[in-house]
Amino acid sequence: MDEFKRYDENGNEINGNENSTNNVEGNDYGDVVETTIIKSHTDESNDNSLSMEKHNQAYSDQCFQERIKNEEKKARKKIFTWKKVIACVLVAVLMGGAFQLGMEVTKPFFEKFVGSTISQNDDSNKFAFEDKNNTTALTEDNLKEVSSDYTSVINKNYESPVVAIAENMKPSIVTITSVVTAKDWFNNQYEQEGTGSGIIFGENEDVIYIVTNQHVIDGARNVVVTFFNSENINAKVVGYERDYDLAVLSVAKKDMKKELLDSIKIAKLGDSDKIKVGELAVAIGNPLGKQYSNTVTVGYISAINRTLESTDKSLPLIQTDAAINPGNSGGALVNAQSEVIGINSYKLASTDIEGMGFAIPVNEAKPIIEDIVNQKDRPALGIRGIDVTEEMGDFYGLPIGILVKEVTEGSGAEKAGLRSQDIIFEFGGSKIFNFEDLQKEIEKYEVGDTVSVKVARKTNNGFEKVELNVKLTDRQSIM
Predict the structure, then answer these.
(1) Strand spans (E) along 204-352
(2) Cα 152 from Cα 158, distance rounded (Å)
(3) 245 is catalytic
């Protein structure tokens, strides 16, 4: 029988017992496995080889069993660990909820007898407006807030002049309601009301005088004036000037209560020649009727010496961006000194136009108003027309002058044979280029004077010069 020898791990022979058990560490599973290391001589028999194979097979089976056991242990450890984590979380939640519930239940009693020492939830970051100053309340001043100190100083030392203007002018502005007779599609007559505004500008022993636009009372059968205290009184038309769109009304003092006479004021007329573009302009009137009486709108003088192409006269107008609406006609355009500088008259209305109102300069209106009040005869030619400018003349092949569009019935122009489509180019020996030139020349004459008027009259071959002798008539007689 062959002798078994023992060898260490380095191959050196070990004396002693035939079998020795060594502890081998460092296997893949972290456990100690007892193994028997067997070395044989080269001349071992087949039986010994079989024994070695069995021994090695037993060793492999043992290792496999150990690995299975270790895997089962690890799986059990993982499951146990997650169970503990979940259990801890559940316990913490239950304890926290119980604590919060207890705090809410006992809080009223605790605060009643001990006082509030429990910190509240911090709501300071919520957005809110303070009740008094309407300012934003925030906990952190990341941005500066607009200071009201400057505004407070301004309010103490300055008040908008518009406030004083409105108070001063209120007793001087009236509402004018005119009743006209109109006809419907079936030629049936009916009464129709129109409204406008007016300015109290003067008085005498018997009446007070009010100026307005001529188109406000045009064709009126009856005119009623409503004062700032809502008192209504019938008015009389003293006279009007169609070409300037001005009219004067009078209200008898005997028809007015003493309280009203003591409270109304005569408006102060300013100097419209001194106004400048950019100055304050306040429009006061009654847009859309009595319910909006004494409406105040504010703007600036946008331009001066404007002439609207739609008018038949050359009258310089004040342009303003202060809102002028239907019913404002005849109202006052006032400067910062509460002085009337214009009589509101026109507005360009369109979806493409905003803030273009026009007023008759008070300096242009004064002599017309005086003539109407004094019933002075004012000479008139008796036509309506438009200016033919150099551009229009070149484009249409017309002479420069005034193209007559309408001849007033009963006027000196009609009696002298002036016709529509005639172009006036000379009056009393002076060249005429526009209506402004014609008006200046007419003012040099008196009612009843005969003046030479030269016109260009259209013929089949072009134009021919025609001279007419026109007797000037009174404006009031033909208006």
Answers:
(1) 207-212, 220-226, 232-241, 246-252, 280-285, 295-306, 317-320, 332-334, 340-347
(2) 10
(3) yes
pLDDT band at residue 199 using 50, 70 and 90 as cut-offs: very high
CB 300 within 8 A of CB 283: no
Supply 69's token pair: 């056991």
Q: Is the pLDDT of residue 370 over 60?
A: yes
- Indicate the length of the chain as a whole number: 479
Rounded distance, CA 135 to CA 105, Å? 37
Structure confidence at residue 150 (pLDDT):
55
Q: Residue 216: which residues within 8 A CB-CB, separation 6 or more?
A: 176, 178, 194, 195, 196, 197, 198, 247, 329, 330
The strand pair at 340-347 and 332-334 is best described as: antiparallel
pLDDT digits (tens, 9 = 90+) for 237-271: 999 888 788 999 999 999 999 999 999 999 999 99
Contact 452, 467 (CB under 8 A): yes
d(CA 82, CA 450): 124
The CA distance from 279 to 297, in Å, is 14
Q: Which of 215, 221, 170, 180 is nearest to 196 (CA)?
A: 215
Q: Which of 250, 302, 329, 338 is catalytic?
A: 329
- C-alpha to C-alpha distance for 359 and 342, rounded to whole angstroms: 5
Q: Judge contact between 404 and 422, C-beta under 8 A.
A: yes
8 A C-beta contact, residue 247 and residue 217: yes
Asked about 41 being catalytic, the answer comes back as: no
**d(C-alpha 201, C-alpha 208), whole Å:** 8
C-alpha span between 224 and 227 (Å, rounded):
10
pLDDT, tens digit, for every residue of 48-93?
555 565 555 665 556 555 555 555 555 555 555 656 667 666 766 6
Which one of the listed residues 172, 178, 197, 215 is annotated catalytic?
215
Instruction: Please write the tens of the pLDDT for every residue from 403-417.
Output: 998 898 889 999 999
Say which of 178, 243, 245, 422 is annotated catalytic: 245
Least confident among 103-117, 181-195, 273-287, 313-327:
103-117
Highest mean pLDDT among 19-33, 360-374, 465-479: 360-374
User: Taking a C-beta distance cutoff of 8 angstroms, is the pair 69, 33 a contact?
Assistant: no
DSSP string spanning 262-288? HH--PPPB--GGG--TT-EEEEEE-TT
Contact 333, 283 (CB under 8 A): yes
Residue 443 exposure: Cα atoms within 13 Å on the Cβ side: 9
Q: Is 55 a catalytic residue?
A: no
CA-CA distance, 173 to 227, in Å (whole number)?
7
pLDDT band at 4 (very low <50, low <70, confident <90, very high): very low
Phi and psi (nearest 5°) for 372? Answer: -65, -45
